[in-house]
Amino acid sequence: MTSKLIPSDPSKVMVIRDIVPNTITTFSTPFWRFGRIKVGGRGTVVRLQSGALAVFSPVALTDDVKEKIAGLGEVKYITALDIEHHIFVGPWYKAFPNAKVIGPEGLPEKRKKQNNEDVPFSHVFKPNQPMTIDPEFDAEFEYEYIYGHVNKELVFNHKPSKTLIEADLLFNLPATEQFSKTGENSTSGILTKIFCALNGTKGNAQKRLIWYGTSSGDRKGFSASISRIDKWDFDRIIPCHGDVIENGGKGIFQRIMEWHLNAAKKSA
């Protein structure tokens, strides 16, 4: 099934871009949801002030990626942002065995059930349990475990650059950058057109989808997490699916999550 989701030769179609010079680099690649819908995929690497590297939702570890990483520093943290974004955690840990692997509850068990590579998780987030990574990491990141999200989402805010890093919290489709080197239109195909219409940042479709779908299992917990994230100072949003929101991200976040923010206020 993986062969239907990711490109056979990711090195030919991956876009490596410095979002913040010498601090944040993204690795954008084609990705097909259910093997048919063009949503794109993205890994993000943040270089801490110490020189250590934090990797979020790692993508294929191609030679170009290895070369870029080698020029940035030492990988010390590898994070699967939810229970779906873990395909390449094994290869990255094999290449950087001293790194701390971070993920949400349920992911270690899921990987074992799927016979994925054996990866020891240093930090597993669980509901209502305070979590710290280490002083070096905590000095630069705020983070929230949205256990009310259907995919058990982890969200990080890189405070020095005011950058929110997330996987499936919100999409910014179409995935223009992620399909820019494929020769394919990022919106071609009827299923992709429908999915993009539901998961863009304009209009209210995604707001409704998150309220009635993504958060429906634990809307109260989801809303509480969104309220805490809203207190963070961020401007840029780097999603795994769709284009990077280079500025104005806080306002977009507040508009899409308006109902959850209102719900949190009412229950406070």
Automatic annotation (TrEMBL):
Domain of life: Eukaryota
SUPFAM superfamilies assigned: Metallo-hydrolase/oxidoreductase
Pfam families: DUF4336 (PF14234)
Protein name, entry field: Beta-lactamase-like protein
Organism: Lojkania enalia
High-level lineage: Eukaryota, Fungi, Dikarya, Ascomycota, Pezizomycotina
